[in-house]
Write a structure and sequence with these properties.
heterodimer, A: alpha/beta, Peroxisomal Thiolase, Chain A, domain 1, ten-stranded mixed beta sheet, 14 helices, B: about 425 residues, alpha/beta, nine-stranded mixed beta sheet, two-stranded antiparallel ribbon, globular
Chain lengths: ~450, ~425
């Protein structure tokens, strides 16, 4: 083993495809003006579902981002979105894409990929048609021969393959020729924060110079909506989609299913300096933990969340007193928002009520596997512009939820150090800390 | 300060050859094939009707009484991972809450978990009655589904199929509160999970980690995908024992199966302090990407795998001549086997002609996210027994696959072993183990 290397890690590019815009600035302006990306479901007919609305990526055109749309033609929504987000981020970071002979001076074996990415939707029509054909209602069992007949006839092999969760990373590799360390993780709603954190660690230890990190996911499909509706995790405020996502409000009734892809280019400081690219922020801390409590609920006192935040602060070598802003997980479920508030109080002690926190999910919805990376991008923008995005729809208050949630309008203030929190089903907790870039 | 050294102090497996490591290893030594006709469902109409299925087990034996209700929330992938994790802890001497709550000797906050998991396919039998209740004029009707069908789906249905639930259930049973991740890179996930757990320990975030992979692929929807992609063999349905033929001239495709492999990784200092049995040391890890527009296969020259092997070798600081064993990915898919052989030669040069190569999938089947972890366990067993069992179904080397495949069981001192893996989609990995002296 060689002696330990420790590289500082910075962000040199960002890209996003989201319900509030297909580039970082559009998204950021939408968030500052309190716009909502939540509306009636148009992807499939959900009119009889308990929840009829969601936060969709609209009017996305893959051909704007790639010369080879054919390569991505079988993509599920998440993979298609990640191609756009990656193309934007690479452009900003001056990483060549779609060229056999890149001139960006980057060693492709030291350019990696780390995604928090979800599975793609099943091919709905044929998936359900095969079951209908296979179900023997007299015997009350599946006739696999009848099922296979439809499946073999109608399923497309590549569209089936595209359902695998490693596919978004595959599409990024084809786009960028990245040959460095590549992984894809899926720790539910905490996945892309974990991806960013682990990517940072790989660069810090010298395993890669640059990692294309982030997330991609869409669960806006019949089985995804069914699953979350059955868990009663989603808001059912069908008469008012725009006000349905109300994190930390007393009348919150669940999260809003969203979709998208977000990419941050993480790079070692020495590589960024050598290439002379603009540094957008520094990634200084990462903490990961598990609740080990219940698969259905978060630990009542937020034990895992507290441990992850504490570990991230220790990793960054800072105190809770140094933190200017917390971008919360803030899903708008009863459970998350109470427990997250408790956890923040436990870690931030006397500073808890004076540390501004907000949830952009109030506007953006919940991008599931892509949520953490999308929110990280908003944290970078907050530092850049010294403006904190609001928690919209903070309509009514609950006595115990008494933090400074930045209600309903953005706030101008100096912002240097920001915490990004993500918590996932099963008790997955991941926290990343970023800081305004300052040399020295 | 040097990064901590990381050693393997526990092994657990459930495979088509047995419910534990010793049965699996004994089966591999005897050249047994765990592939047979599919019994999990009736594969009539499937082009491939064979698979590697694990022997019967009772999951309740592995779940503490207080958590028995959670058995209802477990897909088969989750069950397999729990069984392998249980054995891994027992063999390690680490006493968790799930092993014996009165004699715990671990600090839950200092333990990490990293599991490779597949795309868990929902149980169609479970879903079918709800679909059947949502039919109008013989066709699926989404209006009916939203109103009626949906209500017939069990409320916690989704939680059975989230890939991170393997790590979550294991974490709850054994009280693992440290860093937790789930790697979802298909057939390379097991190796990548082990690699990341190594890194978590090397950087000091934890003192011990449970790592590995699990996947249950004997399921109509998984099998049909592999049939449609023509990765599953459509021949040898009548001769399952001869069906999976890695690097062999008569190879016609892979055979899929189910398994879990889990190891305990530990900081060397910690392992020594508690007097743990050390099975092997992890000394090299590499990963990369294959880039191929036909991404159901890796690229023909194997370059992405070559890079992974080269990186692992560089980290291990050893020369190719020092390798005593290679456990390749070896699926029996001719194009991929050829690419892997090329990658091994490109990375290791002339030495590759002499290093014994021992593919396991002819016996264990292709178990997806579990495969890499099970192969690491097999390599550790070979190391500790100083023995490389004879390969099975590699009788006549395919053109270009001029590897030194071990055709007769061989006693051999094994100091260094290399395990390789790659997946459709292109991610690649290599892991180098060193015998602990």
């Amino acid at each position: 083993m060689t002696k330990e290397m420790t590289e500082r890690v910075v962000i040199t590019g960002m890209g996003i495809v989201s319900p509030l815009g297909h580039d970082v600035d559009t998204l950021w302006q939408a968030l500052l003006s309190g716009k909502s990306g939540v509306a009636k479901n148009t992807i499939f007919d959900a009119s009889t579902f308990p929840t009829t609305f969601d936060a969709e990526v609209k009017d996305y055109d893959l051909t704007k981002y790639t010369k080879n749309p054919q390569l991505h033609k079988n993509s599920n929504r998440g993979s298609a979105f990640v191609v756009g987000a990656t193309a934007q981020a690479c452009k900003q970071a001056q990483i060549n894409i779609e060229t056999a002979e890149p001139t960006d001076g980057i060693d492709r074996t030291r350019l990696g990929i780390y995604l928090g990415a979800g599975e793609g939707s099943v091919d709905n029509d044929v998936f359900f048609a095969a079951i209908v054909n296979g179900w023997d209602s007299e015997k009350n069992e599946m006739d696999w021969g009848r099922w296979a007949q439809v499946a073999f006839e109608k399923m497309d092999s590549m569209r089936e393959l595209e359902q695998e969760p490693n596919m978004p990373a595959t599409h990024i590799a084809m786009l960028t020729s990245a040959r460095g360390p590549t992984r894809s993780c899926l720790t539910a709603c905490a996945a892309s924060t974990q991806a960013v954190g682990e990517a940072m660690m790989l660069i810090r230890k010298g395993d890669a110079d640059i990692i294309i990190a982030g997330g991609a996911h869409s669960m806006i499909h019949p089985l995804g909506l069914t699953g979350f509706n059955r868990l009663t995790a989603l808001s059912t405020r069908n008469d008012s989609p725009e006000t349905a996502s109300r994190p930390f409000s007393a009348t919150r009734d669940g999260f809003i299913l969203g979709e998208g892809a977000a990419i941050a280019i993480l790079e070692s400081l020495s590589s960024a300096k050598k290439r002379g690219v603009e540094i957008l922020a520094e990634v200084i801390g990462y903490g990961s933990s598990s609740d080990a409590f219940r698969v259905t609920d978060m630990h009542e006192e937020g034990r895992g969340a507290i441990q992850a935040i504490t570990a991230a602060l220790a990793d960054a070598g800072i105190s809770y007193k140094d933190v200017d802003y917390i971008n919360t997980h803030g899903t708008s479920t009863m459970e998350n928002d109470s427990i997250e508030t408790k956890a923040i109080k436990a870690v931030f002690k006397e500073r808890a009520k004076n540390t501004p926190v907000s949830s952009v999910k109030s506007m953006l919805g919940h991008l599931i596997g892509a949520a953490g990376a999308a929110e990280l991008i908003t944290c970078v923008c907050a530092i850049r512009d010294n403006i904190l995005p609001p928690t919209m729809n903070l309509i009514d208050r609950e006595p115990e939820l008494d933090l400074d949630y930045i209600p309903n309008k953005p706030r101008k203030m100096p912002v240097d150090i920001v915490i990004n929190e993500s918590f996932g089903f099963g008790g997955q907790n991941n926290v990343v800390i970023i800081k305004r870039w300052a040399s020295g | 300060m040097s990064p901590a050294r990381v050693v393997i102090t526990g092994l657990g497996a459930i495979t088509p050859l047995g419910l534990n490591v010793s049965d699996t290893w004994a089966g591999l030594c005897d050249g047994k094939v765990g592939i047979d006709k599919i019994t999990a469902f009736d594969p009539v109409g499937f082009t491939c009707k064979i698979a590697g299925q694990v022997p019967d087990y009772n999951i309740r034996q592995f779940v503490p009484k207080s958590l028995r209700k959670s058995v209802k929330l477990m897909s088969r992938d989750i069950e397999l991972s729990i069984i392998a994790a249980h054995e891994a802890f027992l063999s390690s001497g680490l006493v968790t809450k799930g092993i014996d709550p009165d004699n715990i000797n671990v600090n839950p906050e200092r333990m990490a978990i990293n599991i490779g998991a597949g795309l868990i396919s929902c149980d169609l039998v479970e879903l079918a009655p709800a679909v059947a209740a949502s039919v109008t004029n013989g066709k699926f009707d989404i209006h009916k589904w939203g109103k009626d069908g949906l209500e017939l789906v069990t409320p916690l249905w989704l939680l059975k199929y989230l890939p991170n639930m393997l790590a979550c259930h294991i974490g709850i049973i054994h009280d693992i509160q440290g860093p937790s991740n789930t790697i979802t890179c298909a057939e390379v996930a097991g190796h990548l999970a082990i690699a990341e757990a190594y890194q978590v320990l090397a950087r000091g975030n934890s003192d011990y980690a449970l790592a590995g992979g699990a996947e249950a692929k004997v399921n109509p929807i998984v099998m049909i995908r592999q049939c449609l992609l023509k990765r599953a063999t459509s021949q040898n349905n009548d001769e399952p024992a001869f069906a999976c033929r890695p690097f062999d001239a008569d190879a016609k495709g892979s055979v899929f199966g189910e398994a879990a492999g889990v190891i305990i990784l530990e900081n060397l200092e910690n392992a020594k302090k508690r007097g743990a049995k050390i099975y092997a040391e992890l000394i090299g890890l590499g990963h990369s990407n294959s880039i191929n527009p036909e991404y159901e296969h890796i690229e023909p020259d194997g370059y992405g795998l070559q890079i992974a092997i080269e990186k692992a070798m560089a980290q291990a600081h050893i020369e190719p001549e020092q390798l005593d064993l290679i456990v390749p990915h070896g699926t029996g898919i001719p194009a991929d086997d050829l690419a892997e052989a090329r990658a091994i030669f490109s990375a290791l040069g002339e030495a590759a002609k002499k290093i014994p190569v021992w593919p396991t999938k002819s016996m264990l089947s292709n178990t997806g996210a579990a495969g890499g972890a099970v192969d690491v366990i097999a390599a550790v067993c070979a190391m500790n027994d100083s023995k490389i069992p004879a390969a099975v179904n590699c009788d006549k080397k395919a053109e270009g696959c001029n590897l030194n495949i071990v055709n007769q069981t061989k006693k051999k001192d094994i100091r260094y072993a290399l395990c390789c893996s790659y997946t459709y989609g292109g991610q690649t990995a290599a892991v180098i183990l060193k015998r602990f002296d």
